[in-house]
Amino acid sequence: MPRNVLILGGRAPVALDHARRFAHQGWTVWVADSIPCQISGASRAVSATLRVASPRHEPARFVDDLRRASLTHGIDLIVPTCEEVFFVSRYRDRLPAHVHVVADDFNKLRDVHSKWRFLSLARDCGVEVPDSARVASLDEARDWAGTRPVVLKPEYSRFGVHVRIYRHGIPDAAPPLAPLGHWVVQAFAEGREFCSYSVADRGRLVAHSVYRPGWRMSTSSSFYFEGVRIEAIRRFVENFARKLDFTGQLSFDWIQHADGRVSVLECNPRATSGCHLFTLDDPLPDALNGTLDDALHSAPGDAPATPIEPSSSTPRMVSAVMLSAGLTDALRRGELRRWAHDYRRAFDVIGTPGDRGPIAGAIRDLASYARLALAQRCNMREAATQDIEWDGQELPEA
Fold first, then answer.
1. pLDDT at residue 259 tops 70
2. CATH of domain 105-129+190-353
3. How sure is the predictor about 379, in pLDDT bands with cuts at 50, 70 and 90?
4. pLDDT higher than threshold 60 for residue 183
5. Which residues contact 113 (CB under 8 A, 6 or more apart)?
6. Band of residue 1 on the pLDDT scale cut at 50, 70, 90
7. Same fold, 1-103+356-398 and 105-129+190-353
8. Considering the entire predicted model, what is its pTM?
């Protein structure tokens, strides 16, 4: 029976990754976004690209566009990949009832997206949670922190933007906090960084991956993803998903201490780069669709299957960034040999054999972001995300 999926946030490499896997497993794939998304639209996996209104600036039009697309194209499943997930969840009742939407209750998403509220939810789930406080000014943060090393970040933020790391305490010369709502001051956790990506279905963990961000843009997004297995992280995600009876995509940032203990830092209830580690044949589409047991032929009454994990250990990378920012960083730090070793053993997530169109599509998208940045007088990162960002504000009736 034909199955049709609408993948949102087509600007993101994770949307391209999902599109290829769904198409490979027999789905007809539609991609939608509110800005150009040729990185996904140029893929052979995508039947067509749809333009929708900005969920942040025109939520009523956005949900109407999704409803119209669902009815016109016979959509069975909607998979948000970026922060449009909050708007999809908030206005879910406006979408056709037969469409399965990979997004949980709006209040749950709000709580896990908050870098403050999430910490309370994470307690008693099996790992350490750093001491933290919610503050409105640098003076409040300094009063709480004393001379301790700390991290400061807006309660609602993404990609490590605005994060401050003070390894020797907050200095007297530190600039005031930007007016971005409340901030979270958190005890600095020393150790190795890891990230996880998971899918939960009605409180059950059904897909899971963990990766080490081997190469990254300073303290921001990674562009090299090397899969690892850390049992304590998997157990935490199982406990957390069960505690919240969660359905959807869950991503976490982690620190592993020298003695092996792990601390969870924050949660993003959306797709992140851990999905790149799954192969085309891994049944991630069924995990997202809530049909994993059928795909694995589990009989009624059988014990739940272990969550699926990537079947390949090959690292993934954004090759163009690895060849530019990654190589520059390696030369600066004298790590050319490590860079060459890592580059040779990884697969690119943008251009793949038989599907190189997204490379040119990504270049066209960058040109579009540059034009938007000039028109809106902002940087390219803001131009690429400002129309879908949600920072905790009330969402009106659509």
1. yes
2. 3.30.470.20
3. confident
4. yes
5. 86, 156, 267, 268, 269, 390, 392
6. low
7. no
8. 0.94
